[in-house]
Design goal:
Elements: H1 15-39, H2 51-59, H3 62-82, H4 89-133, E1 140-141, E2 144-151, E3 162-169, E4 172-180, H5 184-201, H6 208-222, E5 229-236, E6 242-248, E7 254-257, E8 260-263, E9 286-289, E10 295-299, H7 301-304, H8 328-343, E11 351-357, E12 391-393, E13 399-404, H9 414-419
Antiparallel strand pairs: 1-2, 2-11, 3-4, 4-5, 5-6, 6-9, 7-8, 7-10, 10-11, 12-13
Length: about 425
Amino acid sequence: MMRMGGPEAPARPGPGGQFLLRLLPFLIMAIVAAVDLLAGPRVGFLPLLSLGPALAAVVFRPAHTALVGGLALLLCVPLAFYDHVAGERPDIIALTTIAGITLTGSVASAARHRRERELADVTAVAEAAQRVLLRPVPPQVGPVEVAVRFVSANASARIGGDLYDVITTGGRVRLVIGDAQGKGLPAVQTAALVLGAFREAAPDAPDLRAIAARIELSLRRRAAGEEFVTAILAELSADGSSVEILNCGHPPPLLVSGAGTRPVGWPDGELPFGLSDLADPERRAHRIALAPGEQLLFYTDGISEARNRSGAFYRLGDCGGLLTGSDPQAALDRLCADVIGHVGHRLLDDAAMLLVRRPAPRPGQGQADGSPGGQGFGEAPASQQTTGPRPARNGQGRPLAGRPSGRPRATRFTGLLAAG
């Protein structure tokens, strides 16, 4: 199953950290009591016992915070007798301080607990919206392997203006990756509009230009304002040997091969969706070859424009070494970690990556595109193909005289099924 590396949930303390936080109020009160006993009756540390309920309000619920405050009050009484201030002004001040902080902490704890419940509800809604907008992509789509990675710039957000999807229909694999203008809910709404139009058009549209026209029309009809979306539409051939790309103002994808990494772009770049009125709306697609073992990395500007504290951009063209290995998803995880390491903090913009890899043929297996030196998916070598009946053979592979099988050799369709 594809791992959705981002959207990333906010970091929370592990079980060990939670235990230490819950133990801290009691530990503080024990330290205050020990210091008070060691310092002697002349020095009073009783008001410091209020640190216990103050810290409890951060990690406990209101009832538990009140119990910690009650324990602090009970601990204050014998210490007051030890300090010879029982019933006097220092004792009354200490008790009043502890009681007041316990009451305040309980109220603050109740408010925090209510906000946590509201956040949990909002997170559940966001996760449901994520599953609708950014659907999981299977690791194997037709003849290619696919991996995706999304990282939100907002620690509490699950979705943003970046979008992607991969659809397989009728033996065709079509994909989209894009970035909606702006941030927040308006960008999410625009991204949802583009994804909805793509999912509606991709199954039956004759080509990528028709899909682009449907997306453009959808934005004109329903977009409020001057929203625009940069995007790339792509379609893979049935055997994965070529990819047709239609770039609508988006950063060009990277072709990663044994020879290095290079951007796949053309001088006649198209305008983003939503801005076609500014120029000729006729869009042109380009086709490139994808050899076995080569990869195409699609990404949004959250990756290409990631900068460190000194203002240096991330060198995406040097990422080829990170995209090696047998697991494309692990390769994207390494790339994402390297980008965050370069920036030194959370990304300031949403980032999406989509990696398409054409698997290299395994040892002893022919090439998948039917080029010389191999055969197509499920196709027998030419030297073994026959047009007439094939003679029956015994267990040692020798012909059985006078016993022709009378059956033509069966054609193996395993590869074709896998490619479809």
